[in-house]
Amino acid sequence: MTPQALRALRLNLYFPPWRDVAAHLAAIPPDARRCTTTGWPHRDAWLQVRVDHDLAPGLLERMSHLDLPELRAHLARSAEARPLVEPPVRVALVDAGPPERWEIRVDRLEIALPSFVRWTLRVDGDPPHTDELRELLGERGAAEAWRLLRDHEGLDVVELVRGELGPIVHGEGGPWTSAVLSRATRGPGPVRIDDPLARDLPVPGPAQRFSLSRQRKWSAASDDTKDLKRWLADRGSRNLVYTT
Amino acid sequence: MNDEARRALEMAARAERRFRDEMWAGLREDPGPAWHRYAETFARVRAVELHLRLIEADLARLTASDPWTVELRRGFRRCRDDLRGLYEAGRFTLQGMELELDWAREHAGVDPVARAELRAGMEYACTLADEGARFVAGYVGGLEARMRALDEEAEARREALREIDEALD
Questions:
Q1: Which residues contact A149 (CB under 8 A, 6 or more apart)?
Q2: Average pLDDT, stretch B29-42?
Q3: Which of A44, A112, A243, B12 is most buried, by the most CB atoms less than 10 A from its CB?
Q4: Phi then psi for A52, rounded to 5 degrees?
Q5: Inter-chain contact A54–B43, Cβ cutoff 8 Å?
Q6: How far is CA A164 from CA A7, A13, A27, A85, A158, in A?
Q7: With 0-12 CB in 10 A as exposed, 13-18 as middle and 19+ as buried, what is A86?
Q8: Contact A136, A88 (CB under 8 A)
């Protein structure tokens, strides 16, 4: 898993800030322990970048008289690393109305899991309390979040988009990096789901009056794209595949 | 190992026992608070690990360059051994917390009664781990002060030796 694999996915603003994730990722050694479920580096590897970044200036000063070239080089790199910081919730008025329409962007960048998700909501009327919204969204899927928000008093959701980085699947010739975008929109409409990794995905019935789409895309090394495309075809998927 | 380092080890062992006895009793809803404690403990253990490497290097330097400072080397060795004890204690605590985090993530959100039990156990264990971590941080500060004192002592000795050399010349 490399920052180039994230760049190759050509992610738009509905996805989490992938450049920040890639910058943090660049400071993690390639042989770091992996999380078995997500394929991301293990949380300790992410944490170590942050901790070493904080400790580096003091330690470099303390070791000025010591001959430790490897440790010095590591700490110098750590001092220059850019550890991931979760941005605050962004609320913007996109239509003065009436009714006023607001766009709310919530990033949940959790190295504990690891999980990198961006929620983008468009709501009519008053914007919701942002802390409450962050709690409500949690680690839910788009359809579940939609149902929850629809039942939430005083909230008129027009559209909800959930972009997530990962997981990384171990392909036959190397890692296959993926990202998925789910979109729930007010009003009846088609359900378009093309995600070979989704299992037991709740699908809206005709009575629920919202449409849902979910598309995954992939990046892999050029030698490996043929295998990935075959793997997708075997699952009846037409997901986009990019070359790193 | 001195009394302070032994106390840190006992504290970590107590936290580990609580993890075993209580953590497995139920389920947790949110890894948030546990994660923050884990991250703090991780940071302190990492600080000890890196300081340990500096002390090792200092010890090697002194051994190679100054055969007169037996006391100083003894002092540094004592610091190094204490730090090793603290590092192992911290790793021990982290391993317990790591198991709990993994397990909680797998089972989150199933049984509310069991979840409440686990939350209570987790809070207790986190308090213990946090106390241990704070103690480690304070102890590292103390060691740094001791090392500085030893450095000054070594310098004074070198100065005295220089004066003797000059007098002899």
A1: A121, A136, A155, A157, A160
A2: 63
A3: B12
A4: -65, -35
A5: yes
A6: 14, 11, 21, 17, 20
A7: middle
A8: no
Chain B residue numbers touching A71 (CB-CB < 8 A)? 50, 53
Q: How far is CA A76 from CA A27, A49, A69, in A?
A: 11, 12, 10
Q: Count CB-CB contacts under 10 A for residue A109.
A: 21
Rounded Cα–Cα distance for residues A78 and A191 (Å): 46
CB atoms within 10 A of CB A85: 12
Give the residue carrying structure tokens 């969204």: A137
Task: Please name the residue that has the structure tokens 């049984």.
Answer: B111
Which pLDDT does position A65 carry in this prediction?
81
B101–A47 C-beta distance less than 8 A: no
ipTM of the complex: 0.78
Instruction: Outline where B23-107 has alpha helix (H).
Output: 32-65, 70-107
Considering CB atoms only, which of B46, B54, B61 is closest to A51?
B46
Q: What is the DSSP letter of B110?
A: S
> Hey, what are A118's tokens?
């961006």
pLDDT in tens, B151-169: 777 777 777 778 877 877 7
Quick check: B38 contacting A, CB < 8 Å? yes
Judge: A62–B54 Cβ closer than 8 Å, yes or no.
yes
Residue of A nearest to B51 (CA): A59
* Residue A132 tokens, joined: 């409450």
How does pLDDT run across A16-56, given as a tens digit for each residue?
999 999 999 999 998 888 887 788 998 889 999 999 999 99
Segment B39-44 mean pLDDT:
76
A-chain CB neighbours of B51 within 8 Å are: 59
In angstroms, the CA A39 to CA A240 distance is 20
Cis omega (within 30 of 0) for bond into A206: no
Q: Which of A44, A65, A71 sits opposite B42 (nearest CB)?
A: A44
How many CA atoms lie less than 13 Å away from A143 in the CB half-sphere?
Answer: 17
Instruction: Using CB atoms, pick whichever of A59, A67, A112 lies closest to residue B50.
Output: A59
Which tokens in the block code for residue B123? Answer: 């809070």
